[in-house]
Amino acid sequence: MATSTATKVVNIRKPAEETNLKSTNPLFDKYFEEWRFLNAAYEGVRALIAYGTLYRHERESKKNYKRRMATAYGFSYSKSVVDIFNSYLFRKEFPKEIAESLTKDEQWKAFQKDCNLEGDEFDDFFVDEQRHASILGHVGLLVDKPNTETLNRAEEKDSEIYPYVVAYKPMAILDWEYERDKTGRRILTYLKVLDDDERYRVWTREKWQIWEIVTAQSSQKNAAGVNPVEEVGNQKGKAEITGKGTAGVLIEEGDNELGEIPWVWLYNQRSNIDKEVGVSDIVDVARIDASIIRNLSQIEEIVDYAAFPMMRKPMKEAGSPTGADESGPTAILEFDPDKPESKPDWLAAEVDGPVKAIIDVIKEKVGEIYRSSNIGGMSATEISKQAKSGVALKTEFQLLNSKLVKKGKNVVKAKKKVVEYWLKWQDEWDKYKDEIKYDHIQSFEVQDMVSDLENILTSTVLVTGSGSYKTEIQKLVVRMVLPMIDDETLANIDKEIEDGVFEGIGEFFGNEALGMEGEGNPPNGFVPGDEGAVNQNDTEE
Questions:
Q1: What does the DSSP assignment read for 314-376?
Q2: Is residue 355 part of a domain?
Q3: pLDDT per position as a tens digit, 293-330
Q4: Which end of the chain has fewer surrounding CB within 10 Å, N or C?
Q5: Mapping DSSP to helix (H, G, I), strand (E, B) and coil, where does residue 388 land?
């Protein structure tokens, strides 16, 4: 993201000087590529391939490299980690206390139902934006209000006009500046963000402006015979046309009625190095994810090019006569007994070793993904050959709980600040500030799912006479272990369960999980309550 010198506009911080509209904060330049990479890791394999995570080997042809990119695949562990965190973070509703009179306010109710003017409810909006913060480390929230200088409060209600919140990913937060006030506190004094419509929104504590970069061609006119750059520039008096053919044009501006920039940082976790940059949940996982994609590509190359035998013959000396039957079936079958060194043989295709080695490495990487993310307790059977002790699982759950509590605090802090700016836009903050409370959840009982599963498994041994009970239990388990599953897939699984794809609860969970192996328990393969069930250990006549 090199700084361009083509487009200049008036800097509203220092009106006597000029600055570049595309200029960016040093932290933006430092982390921009990292944000792109993390975003690609969450989007999946295709996005990571497009980013360039699959390298071309030094002696690899372009054709083969393109083929490898087209056939590459992975398992998107980055997405799984983020979704697991978000699922548990918002499983319980955050406690909140709001003045009853405010809950009856028509504009407040409209904001709760559509907080961003795009149809998203306020609580759902934060669920989605926290997911982006989990991926990228943070997002920015701007609380704005449509320009309604000519309208009173009643007219605003009739027109459904109220303050709203807009979310910006780090890649769209171009520049910002803090200063110390007389108390020593850091105050945001300058902000520049890029909207989805490619317009630049600039804020200070005194003013706000919206700029747009347009092509400046003096000979280009619209249907009305007017040059659009000259027209906008003449209307607002703020157009800088350069010799490079572009211009920064001021589209709209106004006074900042709040006297402060209504900006909120929603952090996933705060960085210990750079204050305005958050820490992603997948900063390490994404790199392991990309590495696994490369490992899987190597396996495919081994299978494609090494998993077949190759004929091997001794090299002929220079000047030796060339025979007509030097190659082919006859040459392979016939050879001179007196010259055994001329006998062709076959080079065995030994691919088991390297393939198994790569698979073992991938398993270790997957285990490290779960361990480093503190979610190993929820995937203990997948990443460990031996069951983990209760103490080990409890420790992992405590670490995960601690991380979720910190994330929850950041969500609550951002929510409270958004509500504060909303009320300030309505000039009602002093009226309600003592009655607006959002409390974070002190504990996320992630081990509850494990306890619930244990209780369910025990009940399936005790309740043996009801097929409907087993069906409903299976549906319940699916919803517990797959909280992020989409409705269509969930409906398909429900149908498979109802159609009897799984013959019994033992087949669904595995009798070993049910505690049915050992003294006093039915033998493996027997399902309680299934009349006529056959012991698989019996020898058929």
A1: PPPPTTPPPPTTSSSHHHHH---TT-GGG--EEE----HHHHHHHHHHHHHHHHHHHHHTT-G
A2: no
A3: 999 999 888 887 776 555 555 555 556 665 544 555 44
A4: C
A5: coil
Q: Which residue has the tokens 């996982």?
A: 285
CB of 202 closer than 8 Å to CB of 15: no
Top-ranked range on mean pLDDT: pick from 135-149, 321-335, 520-534: 135-149
The single-letter code of the amino acid at 45 is V
Decide if 400 contacts 257 (C-beta within 8 A): no
In a domain, 456, yes or no: yes
Domain assignment present for residue 216? The answer is no
Residue 329 domain-assigned? Answer: no
Pseudo-torsion of CA 204, 210, 213, 219, nearest 10°?
-130
Going from the C-alpha of 349 to that of each of 300, 309, 310, 325, 474, the distances in angstroms are: 15, 5, 8, 26, 45
pLDDT in tens, 425-471: 999 999 988 888 887 776 665 555 555 555 666 666 566 667 787 78
How confident is the model over 341-389, as pLDDT tens digits?
655 555 555 677 888 899 999 988 988 887 777 665 444 444 444 444 4
Domain count, the chain: 1
Domain around 463: 447-541
